[in-house]
Design a protein that fits this description.
Keywords: Membrane, Transmembrane, Transmembrane helix. The protein is an all-alpha fold and about 110 residues long. The protein has helices at about 5-10, 15-45, 50, 65-105. The protein has one domain (about 10-105).
């Protein structure tokens, strides 16, 4: 694809709308993950004894292990959801715009 075609794709209204939606989704997911991490760190700082509480009496595993694992798994899952959406809906929109631009050029 040459520069002129690329510029037409980038300036296409459908592509710009898709890029804006993708940016909003990315920032939204980033804000959610950031909020979860900040809440986790704040809770550790404010009430560390809760994370040190064993899950069951006599157990070695504490709630902190499970909450920490949740934060990690949540981040991975949310990233996976973003990638799924970006590679599905957004990629399809990009292909449609490229197809439209290429047809106009012929």
């Amino acid at each position: 694809m040459d520069k002129q075609t690329a510029q037409k794709v980038l300036s296409h209204p459908k592509f710009q709308k898709m890029a804006a939606q993708k940016a909003v989704l990315g920032w939204l997911f980033s804000a959610v993950i950031f909020t979860v991490y900040v809440a986790f760190i704040l809770f550790i700082g404010i009430s560390p004894q809760v994370f040190a509480t064993p899950v069951a009496p006599g157990s070695v595993t504490t709630w902190g292990i499970y909450v920490g694992l949740f934060v990690i798994v949540f981040s991975v899952v949310l990233t996976g959801v973003y990638v799924y959406i970006a590679n599905g809906k957004f990629e399809q929109a990009t292909r449609e715009v490229v197809r439209e631009v290429m047809e106009i050029e012929k």
